[in-house]
Input
Amino acid sequence: MLRWPMQDPEFFLNRLQDEMGRMVERVWHGGVSTRPFDGQEWAPPVDVFEHPDRYVFFLEIPGVNANEIDVSHAGGTLTVRGRKEAATETGEGIRPVRSERRFGVFMRNLDLPAGVDAERMSARCNSGVLEITIPKSESSRPRSVKINVA
Output
């Protein structure tokens, strides 16, 4: 449903704030150099999905060897570290004309939602996408109760 900003200013401001936050995240970790801010050359973008029984994190890491990635958790934070080696062309008469890809060490710290079972966390890498699955703890999953008719 299309809403005009002045019909519901609170809705409009909330949407604007959400979009600005997403824009900052895209610039901050979307393959753009983040060295001036966090000391690293690049950081992979991430998507997070909540399922009824788990959270799934997807990180884009094309060109990163899966053996070079460390996934860990501590104190409610998921940490993903790795290194992407630079592909270089060397030789007489060869010079870079354009260089947009980012290389080097990266680290992403992501806050874990409350009620996860991080001990059962799993990760797999497929076609340059790292998928991390963290089940919800039994106590945090929604429960339905059968109503007995008297």
Remarks:
- The mean pLDDT is 82.
- Strands lie at 46-50, 54-60, 70-74, 77-84, 104-111, 122-126, 129-135.
